[in-house]
Design goal:
The strands form three sheets. Strands 3-4-2-5-1-6-7-8-15 form a nine-stranded mixed beta sheet, sandwiched between helices. It is globular and about 60 Å long. The protein contains eleven helices and 15 strands. By secondary structure, it is α/β, with parallel strands linked by helices.
């Protein structure tokens, strides 16, 4: 568990380590670029499927909002098509292909797939580090899906998605970053050219047209690519296992915020903008809460967390104290975006 002092020290150490590792940047860049070039030249093979595959991914290591966009697409399509999501299930304690059912737990799936399965019980949710095998397992089901959403699949080039959506965060555009280990990019910025759609996520709600135009120019998108902008929409209700309250309850409650996500900044900014005062326990993304953490949480009066963290905490922390705040992606010019998705599906 991090105190403010711990966070400052950790940030300084990470920053120093990244500077020390700068000589390895060209090596990483070269290896990832060669791999992509081999796929581009068809020396390494990508497999296509006769089913709508929609890939949602990014160039950076996380925090761009993939899961909220997956949920947006599920809401858009679930009433008209049978859907499946496929991800690798990061930090799960299982291997190979797992198809979620009513008895599957968060440790078997990973927190993000588990969150999706809890919210959308009528869709198929699967995990597999081998995306080709995962797709083939889904298509071999007695009732296979009509559409597969590939979560975090942009670098999985052994599968050729029919539609690729690349996310980049407003406050950290990929063009302003470099590759690992000093930067946060998994591959070079030129990889963005593979995307059909680029979405700038976590934008201010009042993003001006002039700034949109500037970002489009900075990203230098190709003529065959479309760019959209999105923001985070916070729920006006907080939820526990059995009870829900209006968000306004937080104004009269001393609460502790728990986050184990890649970027807690937007949430903290939002709570601060509402004039709320709170303690904050901040952990790294997909953190595995230990017994000491749980004991500390149970000694708090009122706990607020993200929906993803709630999936890992709800069976460990006193449920009468634990609440989560849902979020959704809101896409500016959503009608045009929705039409592009549906037009793509109608080609099959």
């Amino acid at each position: 568990m991090f105190t403010v002092k711990d966070k400052i020290i950790t940030f300084a150490l990470v920053k120093l380590l990244r500077k020390i590792l700068f000589p390895f940047v060209p090596v990483y860049y070269l290896v990832s670029s060669i791999r992509n070039k081999l796929f581009d030249l068809n020396i390494l093979k990508s497999k296509s499927y006769n089913i709508p595959l929609i890939c949602i991914g990014n160039l950076s290591v996380g925090g761009t909002g993939k899961t909220p966009l997956i949920e947006y697409l599920i809401r858009l399509l679930k009433n008209d098509y049978s859907l499946a999501t496929l991800s690798r299930g990061y930090k799960r304690n299982t291997t190979g292909f797992i198809l979620a059912n009513d008895k599957t737990n968060v440790e078997e799936l990973g927190d993000e797939p588990f969150q999706i399965k809890n919210k959308f019980k009528d869709i198929l949710v699967a995990v597999d580090g081998n995306r080709q095998n995962g797709i083939e397992q889904l298509l071999a089901l007695n009732d296979p899906p009509e559409i597969i959403l590939l979560d975090d699949g942009f670098q999985h080039r052994k599968v050729k998605a029919g539609l690729s959506i690349l996310l980049t965060q407003y406050s950290k555009l990929y063009v302003n970053d470099i590759v690992l280990p000093t930067g946060d990019l998994r591959e070079s910025r030129s990889g963005a050219k593979r995307a059909d759609i680029i979405i700038v996520t976590k934008c201010p709600e009042n993003l001006k047209d002039e700034e949109r135009t500037e970002i489009i120019s900075i990203l230098n998108v190709s003529s065959n690519q479309r760019i959209f902008f999105s923001t985070i929409s916070y729920s006006d209700t907080i939820f526990s296992k059995e009870i829900s309250y209006s968000f306004d309850k937080l104004s009269s409650t001393d609460f502790t915020l728990i986050t184990g996500i890649a970027d807690s900044g937007p949430l903290i900014d939002y709570l601060n903008s509402k004039g709320l005062s709170f303690n904050h326990f901040d952990f790294k993304d997909h953190y595995n809460f230990n017994e000491k953490d749980i004991m500390t949480f149970n000694n708090q009066e009122f706990l607020l967390t993200t929906e993803k963290d709630y999936m890992r905490l709800k069976n460990k922390v006193d449920n009468s104290k634990l609440y989560y705040l849902p979020i959704e992606t809101r896409i500016f010019n959503d009608r045009e975006f929705d039409k592009m998705i549906k037009d793509f599906i109608l080609k099959f």
